[in-house]
Amino acid sequence: MTDEPEDEQNAVDPEVLRGMAAAVGVSLAGDRAVTLAPQAEQHFAQLRYLDSVADPSAEPAAELRLDQWTRPDND
């Protein structure tokens, strides 16, 4: 457990966003990362909420395969 307030624990560092973008090959300028950080915080908060209410015994509803979008059907 940490002594930091919950808001600070959930804060998204713009440099972390830049690192995430770089990991997938996207260039993200520092000022743009600062602008996107509050939006990312909201999205991550929603994901944490969904994770908290998810039934751990439930199977995913579907499978997403990106390679199926790029290959012809006859492969």
Task: Summarize the SSE layout with pairings.
Elements: H1 6-9, H2 14-23, H3 30-53, H4 67-70
**pLDDT < 50 runs, ≥5 residues:** none
Secondary-structure element pattern, one letter each: HHHH
Alpha-beta classification:
mainly alpha
Global geometry:
flat
Helicity level: 55-70%
The tally of helices reads: 4
**How many strands, which pairing sense, and closed or not: the largest β-sheet?**
none
Kindly state the number of beta strands.
Answer: 0
Distance between the termini: 51 Å
The average pLDDT is 82
Rg computed from alpha carbons, rounded to a whole number of angstroms:
17 Å
Beta-strand proportion:
under 5%
Notes on the structure:
The chain has a domain at 11-51. Helices cover 56% and strands 0% of the residues. α2 packs across α3. The N and C termini lie far apart (51 Å). By secondary structure, the protein is an all-alpha fold.
Summary of the model, kept short:
The chain is mostly helical. It is built from four helices and no strands. It starts with 5 loop residues before the first helix and ends in a 5-residue tail after the last helix.
